[in-house]
Design a protein that fits this description.
With 377 residues, the chain is α/β, with parallel strands linked by helices. It contains 14 helices and 13 strands.
């Protein structure tokens, strides 16, 4: 069986976790947490990276720092994971969903401005499949309307827009290190902070509302409860697991890119014949091979293809159910404008297996089976 996903593993993870235990510092913000944060800061150029227990929690921290209050509105795509909306809805905001572009599956930047009201506080673009949104246009809208930008870059580490790392355009960016991501700590994430003025407050929110971070740096002689907050710190053992992969980030990314390019080459004839559509990468975007998807004619054809591949020991999956059609989406949000593409395109998209150590032979077999399906249909 070829699984849809196999979490990345380099071989150093257990040794680093053992080292974390021997350091007798396995709670949050230990030596490996610091190493991971410094690596991300160096790789992205962000002013500060705070490792978190999940990308969900990173986004919740961003919502706290953006001072989201009941009655505020946040503009985001409906085609995203629930966490993008949850972080703001938890603070009492209304999710205002905008249609996506059918080529990249990202929020349509041309539709954002029309959704802005006097209650709008944040634009939350989602970089789907590690392909950047049109951040120049989004930042221009945010600047003219005095809005904050929180980037959901859960899938975007090691990817860029016009040479600048995803997650570093807005006030805040959020990475995921879930087991399905390019680099993993099982569950985990990171908050990227562009402006240093937010760092101290972010540390307080992340440390249960205390100034414990300043205490450990020797800046205060005792730490106290300063503000509301929660515990968003991952164990240093989790960070040790992640660091083993960050050390090999280039190798892991290249291995994924090799398989992505192989899929593209093998399936291009089907796309040229009009049987499927392949991912679109805008010229200004450098992606990270987070996923390889195809688009079928419709949902019925997609379901038949998923079943066909499963019979041949290949696990493929579809992706998000648009949030605006979900019970919570209807309760906590609204769709602005016309749903021309969100639902239609989401029903066509099929993700093929792609993970570190997927072999060239396995990739070829998967592509051959996709072609065999269309040859018989």
């Amino acid at each position: 069986m070829i699984n849809f996903n196999v979490p990345p593993f380099t071989g150093k993870e257990f040794a680093y976790m053992k080292e974390a235990v021997e350091n007798q510092k396995i709670c949050g913000d230990g030596p490996f947490t610091k190493k991971c944060s410094e690596w991300i800061e160096a790789q992205t150029g962000t002013a500060k990276c705070l490792l978190t227990t999940s990308c969900t929690h990173a986004t919740e921290l961003a919502a706290l720092l953006a001072d989201i209050k009941p009655g505020d509105e946040v503009i985001l795509p409906s085609y995203t994971f629930v966490s993008t909306a949850d972080a703001f809805v938890l603070r009492g905001a209304t999710a205002v969903f905008v249609d996506i572009r059918p080529d990249t599956m990202n929020i349509d930047e041309k539709l954002i401005e029309d959704a802005v009201t006097e209650r709008t506080k944040v634009i939350a673009p989602v970089h789907y499949a590690g392909v950047g949104c049109e951040m120049d246009a989004i930042m221009d809208i945010a600047g003219r309307h005095h809005l904050m930008v929180v980037e959901d870059a859960a899938q975007g580490i090691m990817a860029s827009y016009k040479g600048k790392a995803l997650g570093t355009f807005g006030e805040f960016g959020c990475f995921s290190f879930h087991e399905t991501k390019n680099f993993s700590m099982g569950e985990g994430g990171a908050l990227l902070i562009r402006d240093e003025k937010y760092i101290e407050r972010a540390e307080i929110f992340r440390e249960k509302g205390t100034d414990r971070s300043k205490y450990y740096r020797g800046q205060v002689d005792k730490y106290r409860w300063q503000e509301y907050g929660s515990s968003y710190l991952p164990s240093d053992m989790n960070a040790a697991y992640l660091y083993a992969q960050l050390e090999m980030a280039e190798e892991i990314t290249q291995a994924r890119m090799d398989r992505w390019n192989q899929y593209w080459e093998l399936l291009s004839p089907l796309a040229q014949a009009g049987r499927i559509e392949l991912p679109y990468i805008p010229e200004e975007c450098a992606h990270n091979a987070h996923m390889f998807y195809i688009k079928t004619k419709d949902m019925e054809e997609r379901s038949r293809l998923i079943a066909y591949l499963k019979e041949r020991e290949i696990l493929s999956v579809f992706h998000y159910i648009p949030l605006h059609s979900a019970p919570a989406g209807m309760k906590y949000g609204r769709f602005h404008g016309e749903d021309r593409y969100t639902t239609k395109e989401s029903e066509r998209l099929l993700r093929l297996p792609l993970f570190y150590k997927l072999t060239a032979d396995e990739t070829q077999y998967i592509a051959e089976q996709v072609k065999a399906f269309y040859a018989a249909n």
